[in-house]
Amino acid sequence: MKNKLSGKKIAxxxxxxxxxxxxxxPWNAIxxxxxxxxxxxxxxxxxxxxxxxxxxxxxxxxxxxxxVSASDFSGLVLPGGVFNPDALRVNKKAVSFVRDFFxxxxxxxxxxxxxxxxxxxxxxxxxxxxxxxxxxTDLKNAGATWVDEECVCDRGLVTSxxxxxxxxxxxxxxxxxxxxxxxxxxx
Length: 187
Known about the structure:
Blueprint: E1 9-13, E2 18-19, H1 20-32, E3 36-41, E4 46-51, E5 54-60, E6 63-64, E7 75-78, H2 83-88, H3 92-103, E8 108-111, H4 115-120, E9 128-129, H5 136-141, E10 145-146, E11 151-154, E12 157-160, H6 166-179
Parallel strand pairs: 1-3, 1-7, 2-4, 3-6, 7-8, 8-12, 9-10
Antiparallel strand pairs: 4-5, 11-12
């Protein structure tokens, strides 16, 4: 898969409280496929990763949502963790950033609790996706069809349930990012 994503620039949107492996595994897989990866957050400096409820490593932010646009990137990854998407979804700029990927027909990948951002961006209506099981009612109430599957792809939107699904999630995400724009990927 080396160089499959050569020339692509992929945003990872996260803040304090992200599930570390849900950032690092896709990050490494996408980087190994040749893409430039960029950590976008609400603040500059470092953000705190977690292994479930325990603090893990800190990661240096490359840029903030205030300083970027979806047009700067070929795709977006939304790691989970309970605190991360909950903090992101109350930030208007972060929500607009996510929504703009759909408006521009660019692929998006979200794992575990990451789809909370998709609900806030109002981009799940009429789509089939999966997530951590506790989000299924929220997703259904937002108009999505929720399924309990390892990895789901619907018009350029890739979703998975948890860290155990990361191998399939990474493979499908790379495939969608390599494909690029999706005419059906709209807000």
